[in-house]
Task: structure prediction
Amino acid sequence: MTQAPILPGAIIGVLGSGQLGRMFAMAARRMGYRVHVLSPESDTPAGQIADVEFTAAYDDLDAIRTFARGVQVVTFEFENVPAGTAEAAAQFAPVRPNGMALHVSQQRAREKAFLRDRGFPVTPFAAISTEADLDGALASVGTAGVLKTASFGYDGKGQARVGSADQARAAWNGMGRVEAVLEAFIDFACEVSVVGARGVDGWTATYGLIANTHAHHILDVSLLPAGVPPAVAERAAEIARGVLEALDIVGVLCVEFFLTHGGELLINELAPRPHNSGHLTIDACTCSQFEQQVRAICGFHLGATDLLQPAAMVNLLGDLWSDGEPDWAAALALPDVKLHLYGKASARPGRKMGHLTVLAPTREQARDRALTARRLLAPEYAVRAHL
Ligand code: AMP
Result:
């Protein structure tokens, strides 16, 4: 250990105040830390758990400096924190992960180029800022692709599947001709992710490979273990360790991959923070991804990532509220179901309201049980939505 750790009792600052900040704050407070959060909103998922909730815009640099002056370390729960904000905070407290990880991961073209240039496997892509770039991209990537805005896209927002040059042009015009990337459409066998962490001392740790299925571009179900050959899981962990080192991350990182039918792993995207697919680590692993973030950014040894039992996580989106309040009693009548709700006052379609986790002897049993519990929450909606 090269630096003295930040001890329990200290104040950790979190930029952003959604569910990731909430679960981080729960882990940090359990370990005896105080937590300050900052975001433009109030009564937020993280603010409800934090010791102090600051309400300020991310570009209000005076507020950011005041916030950073009052804490011993700053972390964040989303990668779209503006570079100037991270820099202002870094004048007063270490920002972990560092600004470079933010800079790279908040722009798709930059992230993909960073990875490709260092030999990491990425989906074939081309960056687009002009009409000529688009023509070049169609020539190099092909016309079967996914056009994505370069900035501020997540959960499929700012994305269009295209099948011809005309569709690609129309989609780009529809996006307002903003900076974008054209990616080859990957006919993947499945989507998988690795959550990993790196400490101040450079040591890394990874959780087992997680299999993810999406519905309408939003994560729906995660299973650990992923059910792929051990060599694939080991290769994914090796790539994640490489990315943690390349970005000099102190904290947690998630690498999302497409696994092709030929067994090849292609990085889809990075998140330099805990990730939705890692939520099952709270119940299923010795040390959760949130405790791991606390350990890493405070300068401690990383925690054990062992899986206690196969696990499944299903997301609870606002859609489940479409017929009224979900039937919590029905789902909680299953004694092995773990309910996590994020304290959000209003349920909108597509909004992540919470998740369920189930542990079982096999991943399939865990998945079936979690899906059953979700159906019980809103039986009529579940039939309509084919849940
Ligand atoms: P993203 O926001 O980039 O993670 O994309 C959301 C989801 O869209 C992914 O998890 C995939 O299910 C799908 N998707 C994105 N890019 C591609 C691609 N190049 N080929 C096939 N499916 C994709």
Observations:
- Residues 123, 146, 153-154, 156, 183, 185-186, 191, 214, 217, 268-269 surround adenosine monophosphate (CB under 6 Å).
- DSSP finds 13 helices and 17 strands in the chain.
